[in-house]
From TrEMBL:
Name the record gives this protein: Putative ABC transport system permease protein
Keyword Membrane: yes
Family matches, as InterPro entries: ABC3_permease_C, MacB_PCD, Macrolide_Exporter_MacB
Primary location recorded for the protein, binned into one broad class: membrane
Organism of provenance: Massilia aurea
Alphabetical keyword list: Cell membrane, Membrane, Transmembrane, Transmembrane helix
Location relative to the cell: Cell membrane
Entry membrane topology: Multi-pass membrane protein
Transmembrane intervals: 21-44, 309-331, 357-383, 398-418
Length: 435
């Protein structure tokens, strides 16, 4: 019977085309508004590295001044000092540790006639690529020897590599960065996670890091950090003073072998903090904190209240569209009271009528889902045109694609419950007498 009722539902779409178009359009607009905002929320709040998000940790040791500090208050900055980062990389019981900071340099392409440009990149330690599962199109990470001596080696992203070298493999080629020759050792594959969970503090291009060089190289060249630098105490001018200061500007990550090793890492951090307090540092006596990926994203408010509010408003608009759809379905089904009366007189039960009309509303929902999907894709495209950051998150995956149809059909079925129930209450005798 389902196939028969489905055929009736498809035919009913042509019975009153204007009313059908109005219902489908109303439902599609509500679904498109909800799905487009929910898609952005889904991308921003999803687990960016599910295979190991419970094994990646950001430590926070508060080194701020005691003056004006209120215990329990939110810190101004949650990065690390250079000295803490280097010390913790040596002593922390972790499978991998990464220290990094954002920076930039002028780049001179090797092609004759190509204009120099300012590039923005990242200066991490070598474990960065294994820790965050970074794919390579060509080459590989720099060697441990290159890192130890702060060699002039660079890894380019795909866009910059093609801009300077075309489609050819540029590994081994040289270019000038910051006035010095650098050797290309690798080209990143398609890797631009959104949100950029590994570097939430600070800014950078929406297309991802344009280059990466060893942290030791950036320090040797005295490259300035691009992003947040917070100094709780006055320091002398000069780069050496920055390295030895209490200024926080290094982002630090650790990867453990399993989530159960978190306690060992926490204990090591607390022991380190205790030793530093004996040396007269860390005057706030704040507890040492450790955040996994999802907790870190929550702490940094990757999904803000504005995004959540937009999602709630979109679903409120969907509810308003459903109210209108209920009215349209009531009008549609009321006009078929005579048909229902005849069917009931011929032996159809209320359950049969209810099933038939509910399947018909499901057909309306399916049509609304198809149209809503097109409208949602168009809405996301318009949102993505606002900025490169929005373009990176305004993209629909297969989960949201499936949700579009599920939401549309479910919304139609919910909207059809009252009209369908009203249709089942038709009295056959009254309808037959009026014919």
């Amino acid at each position: 019977m389902f196939g028969y009722y489905l055929m009736l539902g498809v035919r009913s779409l042509r019975r009153n085309p204007y009313l059908t178009v109005l219902m489908v359009l109303t439902l599609a607009i509500g679904v498109a508004a909800s799905v487009s905002t929910l898609t952005i929320l889904h991308v921003m709040s999803g687990d960016p590295i599910p295979a190991k998000s419970e094994r990646l940790f950001v430590p926070f040791i508060d080194n701020g001044a005691r003056n004006g500090y209120v215990p329990g208050s939110e810190p101004i900055d949650m990065q690390s000092t250079y000295q803490d980062a280097m010390n913790l990389l040596r002593i922390a019981p972790a499978e991998r540790g990464v220290a990094m900071f954002a920076t930039g340099m002028p780049v001179e392409p090797p092609r004759a006639g190509s204009a120099p440009f300012q590039a923005y990149g990242l200066a991490p330690t070598r474990a960065f690529f294994a820790m965050f599962d970074v794919p390579f199109r060509y080459g590989q990470p720099w060697s441990e020897e290159d890192e130890a001596r702060g060699a002039n080696v660079v890894i380019l992203n795909r866009t910059v590599a093609e801009k300077m070298f075309g489609e050819a493999n540029p590994v081994g080629q040289r270019l000038r960065m910051g006035g010095e020759p650098f050797t290309v050792v690798g080209v990143l594959g398609d890797w631009n996670p959104m949100p950029r969970y590994y570097k939430l503090i600070g800014s950078g291009p929406a297309t991802g890091e344009e280059f990466m060089i060893p942290l030791a190289t950036a320090v040797r060249k005295e490259l300035q950090p691009y992003g947040s630098v917070n100094c709780s105490q006055a320091r002398d001018p000069g780069y050496a003073s920055l390295l030895a200061s209490e200024c926080t500007w290094i982002q630090l990550w650790f990867e453990t072998r399993s989530g159960a090793d978190r306690a060992d890492l926490q204990s090591a951090l607390e022991n380190y903090a205790s030793e530093q307090r004996k040396l007269g540092r860390l005057p706030r006596l704040a507890p040492v904190e450790l955040y996994d990926v999802m907790a870190w994203m929550e702490k940094q408010k990757v999904v803000g209240n504005d995004t959540r509010l937009s999602a709630w408003l979109a679903f409120g608009f969907l509810a308003l569209c459903l109210v209108n759809t209920v009215g349209l379905l009531l009008a549609k089904f009321s006009a078929r009271a005579a048909e229902v009366g005849v069917r009931r007189a011929l032996g159809a039960s209320k359950r049969d009528i209810f099933r038939q009309f509910l399947i018909e509303t499901g057909v309306v929902g399916l049509a609304g889902g198809v149209l809503g999907l097109g409208l949602a894709v168009g809405a996301l495209a318009l949102i993505g045109m606002q900025s490169k950051d929005m373009a990176a998150v305004a993209r629909m995956d297969w989960q949201m694609l499936a949700l579009t149809f599920v939401l549309s059909i479910a919304a139609a079925l919910i909207a059809g419950l009252l009209p369908t129930w009203r249709a089942c209450q038709v009295t056959p005798a009254i309808q037959l007498k009026s014919q």
